[in-house]
Amino acid sequence: MTTETFEPKSIVVTGGCGFIGSNFVHHVVRERPGVHVTVLDKLTYAGNPENIACLPADRVELVVGDICDAELVDRLVSEADAVVHYAAESHNDNSIADPSPFLKTNVRGTYTLIEACRKHDVRYHHVSTDEVYGDLALDDPARFTEETPYRPSSPYSSTKAASDMLVRAWVRTFGLRATISNCSNNYGPYQHVEKFIPRQITNLIDGVRPKLYGDGKNVRDWIHTEDHSSAVWAILTRGRIGETYLIGADGERDNITVLREILKAFGRDADDFDWVRDRPGHDRRYAIDSTKLRRELGWEPQRIDFAAGLAETIAWYRANESWWRPAKEATEARYRAQGQ
Ligand code: NAD
Ligand code: DAU
């Protein structure tokens, strides 16, 4: 297979009002002047139209709707050169409390999109997660590669794994022009306050002690969301059809280390947090080997200074309280009910 160069003029971005999807839309508007973006987003609790409201109306259109709505999806896909699929139920803890929306959006929704892309022969990029590979032991020198067997642990990650499998089958059986990326943990602006880093930052702004699960030694491989966006664009335009690419920036850190960096930034003591109930089935460690993406497509992460990225993220949450405040109380009430 040869490396193709694909230059879409009009793309549908699903989930473009969520955390990573909206950062991708900002990236495309800034870096790709000739590209029009149609955002398809249901605006669940995790979607916020404010994330893209400042972008020019002639470059970005928001269509509020469900990726499971076959008629709507068919119309939008028929008018596009490509679909970049971010929309999902994305939070592990929620998937443990109630898996059902995860099945519908992550599996049925992906099926609806790839059926439309197949019908109209539209290029499709599938945004997925490293969690499909399960976890690694803390003392294991290995990292995930494109060859690692699927072994998802949570309702969330198993539905993402199912969606990846659908895409692979549609490529092989129907010739769908698709690529898949599996990325590690993102951080940056516009991330919902239910997630680890924003939850602790906003707790500290509120004078509440941060909450750490288990023994705090679980490792996540952090990447700035801007680096995720540049990788997805590289794969969409230059990736080989039918291939999977892992996205990561060598950012392994355990949770207690990240939390202590946040505490330090707030001038708080290193032990000024609460231990709370662990997540059932909590994955121990994720680690990405992104050699394939770097070698084949020449992609390199730019935002690799985690301390600088974290300081910027803290400053963003301090400056944008009106953005996160409406979600904070309901999120903490949900956690309290779960003992977390
Ligand atoms: P998010 O929860 O912040 O945003 C999800 C978005 O999808 C929201 O805007 C929501 O309204 C929308 N949505 C949900 N259900 C929908 C439906 N049925 N129809 C249309 N829109 C719907 O999620 P995120 O953290 O930005 O993750 C985006 C994607 O990236 C997901 O596919 C996730 O699996 C993947 N991913 C996330 C990370 C991470 O660290 N957050 C890492 C790797 C991969
Ligand atoms: O690896 C990619 C995945 O990263 C994505 O597929 C998911 O969509 C995204 O949510 C994220 O999943 P995690 O479960 O790793 O992220 P979360 O922010 O929920 O938790 C990060 C780590 O912090 C995890 O080990 C659990 C822990 N944690 C989380 C919260 C919310 C705590 O210790 N305390 C908390 O309050």
UniProtKB/TrEMBL annotation:
User: Key word Membrane present in the record?
Assistant: no
The EC number(s) this enzyme carries: 4.2.1.46
Enzyme class per UniProt: lyase
Instruction: List the GO molecular function terms.
Output: dTDP-glucose 4,6-dehydratase activity
Question: What InterPro entries is this protein classified in?
Answer: dTDP_Gluc_deHydtase, NAD(P)-bd_dom, NAD(P)-bd_dom_sf
Catalysis: reaction(s): dTDP-alpha-D-glucose = dTDP-4-dehydro-6-deoxy-alpha-D-glucose + H2O
Q: Print the keywords alphabetically.
A: Lyase, NAD
Which PANTHER family does this one have? Answer: DTDP-D-GLUCOSE 4,6-DEHYDRATASE-RELATED
What name has this protein been given in UniProt?
Answer: dTDP-glucose 4,6-dehydratase
